[in-house]
Structure formats: C-alpha cells, structure tokens
Design goal:
Blueprint (H helix, E strand, L loop, with lengths): L6 H7 L1 H15 L10 E5 L2 H15 L5 E5 L11 E5 L6 H9 L4 E5 L5 H5 L2 E4 L12 H13 L5 H11 L7 H4 L3 E6 L3 H16 L2 E6 H4 L11 E6 L6 H6 L4 E3 L5 H18 L36
Parallel strand pairs: 1-2, 1-3, 3-4, 4-5, 6-7, 6-8, 8-9
Amino acid sequence: MTETTSHAGREIARQPRAWAQACELLPQVADLLPRPGERVAVLGCGTSWFMAAAYAALREAAGAGETDAFAAGQWPAARGYDRVVAISRSGVTTEVLRAVGATAAPVTAITSVAGSPVEAEAEAAIVLDFAGEASVVQTVFATTALTLLRASLGDSVEAAAVQAARILGGEHGLDPAVEAASQFTFVGSGWGAGIAAEAALKMRESARVWTESYPQLEYRHGPISIAEPGRVVWIFGEPAPGLVDDVVGTGATIVNDDLDPVADLVRVQRLGVALAGRQGFDPDRPRHLTRSVILSPASPTSPAGAASPAGAAP
C-alpha cells in the first residue's frame, strides 16, 4: 500500500484545505471557544491530548488566560475552571465522555461526527465534519482542530498552510539518513512539545518505529544518552541554545528546519506512511488499535485491544 492509495496518505494531503475551512468556520463558532481571561482546561486522548497540550501552551503564551491540558483519563474533576474544551474525533471515547460528564464547568466539544455522544453531553459543540477520517491514525482532524484553536487566538496559520502545501508538493525533502534511521527522538519547546509528542506517536502507530519525545530542555537530562549514528533527533521550532551542538557531538542525524511545527508534522506523517509501506504494514490499521476506545461501564482503564463497535466513526 502506498501513500497515495492509503486513507492516511489521502487524509494527510487534505490538510491545507481543511485548515482553510477551519479558518472560514471560525467566525461562526468563535463564541463557543474560550474567551480572554477565562481559566480553561483542554482534554482529549492520544493525539487529541497532544493537540490540547499545544493549544494550552499557545493560549498561555498569548496572554489569553491560564490553560491546562489533561489526558481525559486523568481529569481532575474537582478542580474549578471557567470552561472546558474536549477534543474527540469520534465523539464516543469513554474517557472523554466520563470527563465531560464529571465537570460542572461549561464544555465545548470539538469533534468530527455530528450527533455523537460528546455533542449531546457538552453545552456546545463544534463539528469539523469536513475533517473526518477513515484511517485509524489521526492526521487531518487533529491538525484542523488545532488550526481552529490557533486562529481563535489570532495566531497566523497561513505560513503553516503554505509550507505544508510545499511539503506535499515535494519540497523540504528529508536526508536519506533520516529515512534509514532505526530510532527517532522528537523535541520541541512551548507548544512545539505537544507537536513533538504527536510526531512520536504517529511514527510508532504507522511504522512501529522506536520513538521518544521530550521538551527540548529536558532532552539533555538523560534522553540524549541514546543518541548515536543511525538515529535521528528531530527539532520542532527554534532550537534551544547549545542543543544542536550537543546533538552533533553524538553523531545522530539532526532534522532542524525553519518550518512551522504543524507543517513539519506533515513530514513526519508522510514518513510514517512511507516506512509502513516499505515494511508491508497497513498505515490505516495499526496493530492493536481501533478508531475509538470504548470501555465497559465498570472498567476504569482501557484493556489491551479495547475495540469500538464495528463500523464506528473515527
């Protein structure tokens, strides 16, 4: 299966257009999103959690208000917030529904499926149905949700869209040493740390590659010990002073280009699909994963291989 024939490959290619649609939608839904000064929590699972973390960092950096991000299964329901934003592609993930149901604050859900349970549980919902996906692996929905949230902060997303389109057109190619690497560590600072975590997840899901992710300044506190020739350190955003020199000294290959982190994530998504194809893996259906995790009423955590009903929306 090639990138162009997989659902994931086609969905990766749809991202710049979906981002534009999100920006077009923003004036209609802006009142449903956090207002300046509100104390906000953002939650999700997996990829959605990483997008929540990126948005939380962006919102605080913009001076819009205190913002925390949580994995939905770790939601501190007793903590007080003015508003909660729940990100759930399918709208049926158990941990998200439990978290939404346990909070007294008004909840805005961002999902790709109209009429889903999370929409019914939340006070308001933003449905990005144009960013819906067939692949188990999230790409277009996650980056589109983040684009909407970035735009709501007044953050320009045009450069990311232009760069992503160029990447999809063949620019900003990767060194062959990157494609041949046996291990990848992704690092980022600020909101880029959330993107780094998502990059590592994409490569693990798609290509079963050994990946790790860290905030940039944490990387030198131990994780750098695994860097060596044949491995990659991929930096999202501006590198911290001295970081590049430290990595060069290990012999690892560095990816450090002047790209918007979300545009750079597109390169990781494509690389994951390409590596999966070379090994005969299905990038649309990674092993042990399903589109949604739905737990039994008595189950506090996800059992291995927890599955959604057949045909459930992504």
